[in-house]
């Protein structure tokens, strides 16, 4: 009697459709495509930022470009890396839409996403802190606000942060999406 | 006949013990305790770093402390926040050892862990980039290497980065652990 009712319960649970992760998987794909564009834009915007001042002496040329600052070079590198990673993860994400469970590939994506989250956050915030210094200087360290001279350079470099921080937010959402999909699976 | 064999398969899968997440949960707890100590140490080390130079004029006092740099103040704040978060998540982690499934609390931990990962990475890497500037200066922006004067200050501030980056690595491992535990559950 006991066994029969258990059996019935199992049967009915098999008949009721399992909660699908299809919506989450599609959201995942859309986010990855957006993040691909955002990091590509950031990388290009920072790499092309350059400014020459209209005056120069015989010995000195006043120009600024991204590779004067190691942090900015790191920023370009990490954004290019993130862009490549998103391009690589989009096929995985498309496969996840088709498959039901996909625990393994979701776990791999959580791992890779969190590594990229770490790298991208590091690059974006280090760049932001240097740009903050460049904009406002620091009195106690006697560092001047160089953005007063290199205005265009600073503007373009600051703009490139937008895409990068956008990608950071998207990566956090992606980790949450994968975690939810894994928890939902039955 | 078909039904009976299905029934048998279900029965046998119920008899075989499910793979346990107990080891992962204990690892999770240990990592959280270590990270609690690391972020507490970082926060205190940075907040107490201060140096006065042994010479001064009537109008100027030469001293450096963490709140001269907004980035360092942010670093102290975020590390204190992370420390509080770990203290709050340890009870949750202990509960996860006792319980079998714990999908919901694991998903919540993934979400909170990835938020803290973002914050802590941002703070640590922004601080690292400022400290790099302080150590080596920047020729094209004409920023001097102030660590030549404020040697002790820079040393203590750099030391406080260790705990913070340690906590970042631990947070990544924690996200991976939770993801694995969720994927394994049956």
From TrEMBL, chains A, B:
The chain crosses the membrane at residues 29-49, 69-95, 107-134, 161-183. GO terms for cellular component: plasma membrane. It is a multi-pass membrane protein. Keywords: Cell membrane, Membrane, Transmembrane, Transmembrane helix. Residues 22-169 form the Casparian strip membrane protein domain. It is found in: Cell membrane. Homodimer and heterodimers. This is CASP-like protein.
